[in-house]
Amino acid sequence: MRPRLPVASLLLPLLAGAVPDVPEPWISAEECGERPLVEALSGPRIVGGHDSQVGAWPWLVSLQIHQVGVQFKHVCGGALVNKNSVLSAAHCAAQRKDPYFWRAVIGVHNLRKHDKHTTKINIRNITVHPEFKKETFENDIALFKLDSSVRYNDYIQPICLPSAHLYLYIDNETDCFISGWGRIAEKGKTSAVLKEARVEIIPSDVCNAFDSYGGLVRSNMICAGYESGGTDSCQGDSGGPLTCYFPSSSKYYLIGITSFGIGCGRPKFPGIYVRFSPYRRWVVSELLLSNRAVTPMSITLVIFLTVRCIVLT
């Protein structure tokens, strides 16, 4: 198994009857999940992926490690969730947790050619999920705290964090996407230009078949890609977001985080992603702890709302 890029969420049955509007994200009240420079579903849907448009995925972050001299190397992807926090995969930081060696590059399209809107920010703190298991990639989620707040613009926007109810409206017709700067083939080179691809959500029972992952996919994971292979994430895409678009809210939501897979693009071995839903409470608590501007009253209010949400879901 080799860690790699993002995939979609578990195929869940739709509720009987009419489908109500998709609920707004409860974690953040600010605007999120919008692509000001790109039409909602622009671009061809081709197997294997293609270059994205500039500004197509404004929440995508390149997490980089300091090399000899002044050089930095792209290691993993990430998703901007607010002005000073990036969600990524735990295995990305497993070998080097010291934030001193890391930086986040936001609003970038070509890693070798930064534009005037590209922002480079040091990392203040890295929080790896306390129950991350490197042997099985369970709980493969981490939060990177930025050293300073980023300013939103057309090229830099946060992704929406969904409520648990959102998963009820995901089916095989939902438009879900992966993106990243990882390898373009299993043993190929990485891409300096951001790539994107549409993926399908694959039921966990199909993914866990004896001729596929054979039980490696747990309930807190998601299979996404194509059973026939060809479109997938790969090394260098780890930590990047699996996002799905919901026309009822005209927004994109973070459904999964690129975690691991056997090979890249192989038939019957699609990418495996962290399913975001089980980690909502952990993410919220970490965001509160890392926000120095939060007052005791606002902490109490958000904890109350969180508990209410947990009880209702």
Can you describe what's shown?
- This protein has 313 residues and is an alpha+beta fold.
- Helices cover 12% and strands 28% of the residues.
- It is built from four helices and 14 strands.
- It has helices at 90-93, 204-207, 280-290, 296-312, and strands at 2-3, 50-51, 60-66, 72-82, 85-88, 102-106, 119-128, 142-146, 175-180, 195-202, 221-225, 241-246, 251-261, 271-275.
- The protein has a six-stranded antiparallel β-barrel with strand order 9-10-11-14-13-12. Strands 3-4-5-8-7-6 form a six-stranded antiparallel beta barrel.
- Strand 4 (72-82) and strand 5 form a beta hairpin.
- Helix 3 (280-290) runs antiparallel to helix 4.
- The chain is globular, with a radius of gyration of 18 Å.
The coarse overall form would be globular
In what order do the strands lie side by side in the largest sheet? 9-10-11-14-13-12
How does the major sheet shape up? Answer: 6 strands, antiparallel, barrel
Beta fraction: 25-35%
Helix content: 10-25%
Helix and strand element order? EEEEEHEEEEEHEEEEHH
Q: Which ranges are low-confidence, i.e. pLDDT below 50, for 5 or more consecutive residues?
A: 4-29, 41-47, 293-313
Gyration radius, in Å: 18 Å
> Helices and strands: which structural class?
alpha+beta
Number of helices: 4
Number of strand segments: 14
Mean pLDDT figure = 81
End-to-end separation in angstroms reads 34 Å
